[in-house]
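A note from the maintainers: we've had questions about how concatenated examples are separated. There is no special marker in the raw files; a new sequence line simply starts the next protein. For clarity in this README we add a label.
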Amino acid sequence: MGKSKQTGNHKGDKKKNIAKKWKTKRRTKDLDQIHSDMKPETAAKLLRQDVDYDVTGCAQHYCLHCARYFVDMRSLKEHFKTKVHKKRLKQLREEPYTQAEAERAAGMGSYIAPKIVEVKTQPVEENMD
């Protein structure tokens, strides 16, 4: 399809590139950030957040692996069955890329294959509904 050539939005001298906004509109967390969120202490904080009316579902229904908020428990459970969620779980099975691995790839050590991390869908609490 190609990059958008459209700039600005009828403001005259303020020329903003709209293509940049489109690229970053649906940006989600990277896999290494999600791996750090999956640590038990951070995961507990994310799954038990205080009520926040500015976030979808008042921040009560959160998918840890996809870094998404949902309106209610039913939509969260349906999300667990989708192809998008299952694909994300598969991506998270590989250990995150580290500086040590980058140095080994550059020839500063012997290659060690990335480890497989077991990732399961988060447990769902029925009483949150």
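[label: protein 2]
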Amino acid sequence: MRRSVFLSLLLLLLLLPFIRAISASPIEDVCENVQDSYVDKEYCIRTLKSDLRSSKADAKGLGVIAAELTIAKATVIRSHINELLKNASNSYDRRRAEAALLIFSNVIPSLRWSADSIASKFYASAGAVLFVALDAASACVGVVELGDAADDYVNLTLLAQAITLHLR
């Protein structure tokens, strides 16, 4: 009797990693694999779960979702810059806002292209474009005030890039 209990427990311990691997959700799996890419695992999970589509997405779908979340944040930033431009009180502030607006107006189609490329499994190309898109916020920081939106954008872009690199 004791021997069968011992063997059962031993078998359970040996199979536990496989059971966990089978039951792990794609979100947890992806976030586990990207956490060494400047992305915190808990941030990754929380961010991806914030989109309802993620519950049914595979790893590629999660990459698309991360890219689309980045697009949404870039769009918010572009709207903020538009407001700065409308409210610019002098030509100096207007030119600064115009420069920032140019950057974010150009980055949004690039991010859209990246999302489409991830969906089409062109991961290397999408990753390269996401790498360049990462600089948009830092390019604007000295030009206009973006507040926490700049950090949010950088974190989302890093997440999308990390997932894309994981998919290769």
